[in-house]
Amino acid sequence: MAQASEVPDQLQPTDERILRLLYAEGIQVRLDIERRLSLPGLLTARRCQVLADRGLVRNSNWCCYEITELGRQSL
After folding, report:
1. Of 38, 53, 62, 65, which has the most beta carbons under 10 Å away?
2. What pTM, to 2 d.p., does this model score?
């Protein structure tokens, strides 16, 4: 039985904040995202992973994220 924990076509407010930061600043280390947006580490890691799974950001290595064209279009 599948659970619908989030609406796939809509961004959560935290997701949008992360995407806007990446759009403005380019590639960001996850720790910098946490600091700049005042987010807890676990939340940042989870939301960045969700964004990567949806193709909105690219995880260039274990801790760096970059917005994709799809991510730009979603803003």
Report:
1. 65
2. 0.83
